[in-house]
Amino acid sequence: MHREQAVVSRGPRHSPRSRRGNILVLSAFLMIMMMAMVAFSVDVGYMALTKTEIQTATDAAALAGAGELVNGTAAAETAAMTFLAANKAGGHTLSETNATFEFGNWNNSTHVFTVSNDTPNAIHLTTSLMQQPLFFGKVLGRNTFNTGADSIATYQPREIGLVLDYSGSMAYDSTFRNISLIGQPAVETNLQQIYTQLGSPTFGTLTYTPVAYGNGSTSNSSIKTRFGLTSVAYPYPGGSWDEYIDFVQTDSYNQAAGYRYRYGYRTWVNYLTSVRYGNSNTPALANCSEQPVTALKDAVDVFLEFLNYNSTDDRVSLSIYSFTDGTAILEEALTHDYS
Fold this sequence. Notes:
Blueprint (H helix, E strand, L loop, with lengths): L15 H52 L5 H14 L12 E9 L4 E4 L6 E12 L10 E11 L4 E7 L13 H4 L1 H14 L13 E2 L7 H7 L14 H10 L1 H5 L5 E2 L1 H10 L18 H18 L4 E7 L6 E8 L4
Parallel strand pairs: 5-8
Antiparallel strand pairs: 1-2, 1-3, 3-4, 6-7, 8-9
Helix pairs in contact: 1-2, 4-8, 5-6
């Protein structure tokens, strides 16, 4: 009986030293790959950071420029450059060489910017940063990169409500009661201006410089006779010669100014601006510099001229407050028509 003997074939054996050599080669290759990935990540991160910085600077500059569009494109560009230079990108201060400006109109419906110098309401700013060095780009055969940003900012039209106080409660520089604020000479100058604007009317024998007559016991009829007012009709719907005489005799501010019992056009105009300033009482004051009524009108004119000149597309409403019960009249609802 023969027994068959199993034969096992074995391949060549590798020594531990040989395996260590293979691991070293693999480790070196992996190390190179890891270093390349780290270098790539650093450069990509730097590129992304620079892109974010230049976009932030561009957005800030465009917003600043849009806010100055009401003062013209030159002012808008100056404001934009100020903000652009204040924000660095990639460690660099941005200047005019990095920026391109366009002015035009932004359509809120279509979201389209159209270049135009005809009353622009938007600014388009494009910035660029060229030949920025990379840290490890040489390994991959690239030394620099370019980046940039663009931003469109619009001037948002406003809805403005103007409320004018015609009640006369702030007529500080045309009445004796406010001498302490601006001085008596200034008040008297303004009173004379109003008298001239009223047409320098003459009644009886009154003169502009007040004349003293009588005292507290002197009757109104005697005073009217003295100044030739007995048969002279009072010129305006509100007030009377008797009320004017009583005012001159009893008003504390008139007395403090040194005009008690003194009758003339200076004290008469002070009476108008202190007591009978409303349009229903003295309509002629509407065309006079009864402050601040004229100042209010002039200020509104200047303001509307400014809006019209800059074509801001703002809408304006106008209300008039002139009633003792605190109510007002809406003269004009919100409109683009400033005429």
